[in-house]
Amino acid sequence: xxxxxxxxxxxxxxxxxxxxxxxxxxxxxxxxxxxxxxxxxxxxxxxxxxxxxxxxxxxxxxxxxxxxxxxxxxxxxxxxxxxxxxxxxxxxxxxxxxxxxxxxxxxxxxxxxxxxxxxxxxxxxxxxxxxxxxxxxxxxxxxxxxxxxxxxxxxxxxxxxxxxxxxxxxxxxxx
Length: 175
Prior knowledge:
The structure is a single chain. The chain is an alpha+beta fold. It has five helices and eight strands, in the order ββαααβββαβαββ. The strands form two sheets. Strands 1-2-3-4-5 form a five-stranded antiparallel sheet. A three-stranded antiparallel sheet has the order 6-8-7, with helices on one face.
């Protein structure tokens, strides 16, 4: 059970053409996305191409995330068909998000998805998102988090860790 005692919706419809579809065990859908150097560098911190995620890695990652929270594939509808373009896990600590498909990066999809994470956690009574980690070289992710009200609470040589207080009116307001 992803979030203890809470039923995970099959679909969270964000816009007419953007939705979160509950992970259904088909981890192989994520393989092509995680083979993209932009994704495995910015999401996984892997820079050695020989260590890029393979099917075994993706399976383990999806199984872990599905147990840790509500794992969804981010889907875009194009020509009447939904296609997975990324993934997100809704959880109160370090909710990960990745947009696998380059044509959908920089278009506000990550912001919309993270807003949905914030809304879902707030609706479930969470008061804070903690430890959202962002690699220092991933400037786009850092901007998105800060735009949504996350604040850097600590940093390491490679990472920023950000928290968001969900009890404030401003939390999650992008602007």
